[in-house]
Structure formats: C-alpha cells, structure tokens
Amino acid sequence: MQLHRADVVDGAIAILDQYGLGDLTMRRLAGSLQVQPGALYWHFPNKQALLGAVADRILAPMDEPVAADEWSAQITELAHRLRDCLLTYRDGAELVSATYASRLTTSKGRERMVGAVIRAGMPRPEAESAAFTLLYYVLGQTVDEQSRMQMDSVGALAEDTSPLDETPDATATFDFGLRLFVGGVRHLLGTRVR
Q1: Half-sphere CA count of 27, side-chain side, radius 13 A
Q2: Are 100 and 139 a contacting pair, CB within 8 Å?
Q3: What Rg, from alpha-carbon coordinates, does the chain have?
Q4: What is the pLDDT of residue 14?
Q5: How far apart are CA 174 and CA 136, in angstroms?
Q6: Is 186 helix (H, G, I), strand (E, B) or coil?
Q7: pLDDT computed for residue 157 by the predictor
Q8: CATH code of the domain occupying 5-45
Q9: Which CATH code fits 63-193?
C-alpha cells in the first residue's frame, strides 16, 4: 500500500484525538501507519510541517461560505465556527495556536475576519489588528475550555464548593467576549463619524 500525504494527516489526527498533542510523535505515527519513520519525511520535512497540515485540516470548515450578511454577524459566525473547529479535536486549540504562532497554517480564517471588519468601515491596518485580537481571543478561550474539559474528564479539577465561583456555561462566556469585541469595534467606528 502506497502512503499518501492525506493518510499521514489522517493518522496524525487519529493519534491527536486518542492520545493528545503531547503524544503525537513521528515514531508513534509511523507505527500506527505500519511504516518506518523515514517514510513520513517523504511527505513532511519535519513534525512542525505535519502539525501545520493537521491544523489546516482542523480549520478546513473556515473556508465554507458565511451565511450572515451584516459584518458583526459575520464576525460572530466566523468566531463560533473557529471555536467549533478547535473543539472538534482533542488539543485542537493548542495545536492550532502553536501553528499560528509559527506561521505554519495556511488557513484563511483570519483573513476572512479581516474582510468582515473592513466591510464595517475599518481601515485595513486596524482591521488586521482587530482580526488578530479576535483570533487570539478565540484561541485562548478555547485552549482554556479544552484544558478544563480534559482535566475534568480525569478528575483533576478541584471540587468547587463556593456558590460565588460557579462555573458559567462555556458558550455563554464565549458569547459575552464576542459581544465585547463587536461592541468595541462599533465604538471605535462610531468615534470616527463625529
């Protein structure tokens, strides 16, 4: 059986989901694909390049059409879509965050956010910064959410007995942050109209 690039990415995603990012090694991947580790390097020059391809697969739904017409609804839709992409895979947010930091992903999700903010009337340089801000918000919030879910699944979270520290619904918390972001963009745009 000939090994294809897509097979390697599929195998990496299977390991990611089963064992997590920390255990996604080239040796383990080669073993799961029943090939020598060197066979993987035919398709990817190093593990970082492989992780970039895995991130691209995780982020593939970001390329689908946006249903919303108005810029703030587009931003909200794209942010939720990104969060959903990250939550679909174990350690998805951590992996994508690392590949964004090292510029290994080719996903155009952030650029789509830039376009929505430009349509709101923000100049491109500020729209770029706004999109990075939103991207980092989604990544950071989702890394925290996934970490807490994983710790909870193995009983590693301390039991909270204080009624003042009730853990809110993760989606509600995420939506609150999005409303703050959109409100901030609206405020910034409104100050320029005067």
Answers
A1: 2
A2: yes
A3: 19
A4: 97
A5: 13
A6: helix
A7: 63
A8: 1.10.10.60
A9: 1.10.357.10
